[in-house]
Amino acid sequence: MTPQHQSRIARDIAGLAPIIPVLVVEEAAHARPLAEALVAGGLPALEVTLRTPAALEAIAAMAAVPGGVVGAGTLLTREDVRAAKEAGAQFGVSPGATDALIEACAAEGLPLLPGAATASEAMRLLELGYDMLKFFPAEAAGGVPYLKSLAGPLPQIAFCPTGGVSTRNAPDYLALPNVICAGGSWVAPADRVAAGDWAAVEALAREAAALR
Description:
The protein is an alpha/beta fold.
């Protein structure tokens, strides 16, 4: 799968809803009901970060939820890409981009949303064929003003800002011409997930889905 093809698929996935939930799943048993609540609330694209022992099992469970499109976040190595693909991930997300990671995604046929935080990083990825990027860490890297400034010289690149995005600033990001969606963790608060309060998660998802 070429970077151009990967980027087209990633752009389509990013366009499914204004917010992609960034999920840290501690218990695999929570995965399916969590995904069902988020999808029911209007957020079909889900990013499960590979930061817990339950992450791959969670991806497998979420991949079986009708209407959901499940991706693996925090991809760092070839092994991460292979394991995510085997678990059922339909796309991958990385905080940055390395040649090894790009090659692994191409070999595994896993669409990648690679991360960039500077104009040079974005330009390099564009040169490789990626025009749909993750902007990370969004707030720490300059936030809305910085991303807005990239729209002039790099109008062909679209972004999904992640990192410090909240209900407070998400509308500002989503108003930018070069932002298709944003990544956020607030739609699945750890306490609500631990309590199995899926109605609360669905309500938060509905609010996020209505941001644009």
